[in-house]
Amino acid sequence: MSESAAATAASNKSRFVTAVWAIVWKDLQIEKHTRQTVSAMVMFSLVTVVMFNFALETELDAARSVSTGLLWATILLAGTLGLNRSLGIEQENQTIDALLIAPIDRRALYLAKVISVTIFTLLLEVVLVFVFIIFFNKPFWQPIVLLTLLLGTIGYISAGVLITSMTMQTRAKEVLLPILLLPLVLPLILPAATAVGE
Predict the structure, then answer these.
(1) Considering only CA atoms, which of 46, 149, 81, 73 is closest in space to residue 89?
(2) Which of 6, 53, 108, 110 has a CB 3.0–4.6 Å from the CB of 19, allowing a cystine?
(3) Each residue's pLDDT tens digit, 133-182
(4) Which family, according to UniProt (predicted)?
């Protein structure tokens, strides 16, 4: 490879990383000022967990045995809400058009959104793990459990951002997203839930 080609490749890589970081930073700053996405995810999750707890209050052993599935179900439902909100804000503020016509690689836009929503979801999971430990008295802080949650979340959000970008221009995007996404990620989530349960 010639020096000019190597320099061009290095420049392209630098622009790619810069674009990813700029979009992630923008998303984090928007969330810092509005607190729309993470707060909505956390509140939805807390309501869901309380409902699960009331439904299983008389059967503590049964609740503990299904707590892993309940944890992932809560993450999936709240994550779907987060995906809709994260890209919905771009549409509401009409910044999605600016991002699409900007001279950046579309892969940078996709990767940045995956990173942003993954960060939001991981923040949610920190709260959820504490809540599930309190309600169901199960040791979710084990390293293998946390690693499985991390990898499962990355896979789920990676697919979720792709599906959300496909459905965000439709009228029924809030309905279409879970219909298309959940069957797609089920083969990923089931082994993850089993691993966490063990």
Answers:
(1) 81
(2) 108
(3) 887 777 777 788 788 889 999 999 999 999 988 888 777 777 888 888 98
(4) Belongs to the CcmB/CycW/HelB family.
**Residue reference for tokens 């839930």:** 193
Take residue 15 and report the two structure tokens written for it: 């622009």
59 membership: H or E segment, kind and range: none
Give the tens place of pLDDT for each residue, 27-38.
Answer: 899 888 888 888
- Burial of residue 11 (CB within 10 Å: 0-12, 13-18, 19+) is exposed
pTM of the model: 0.85
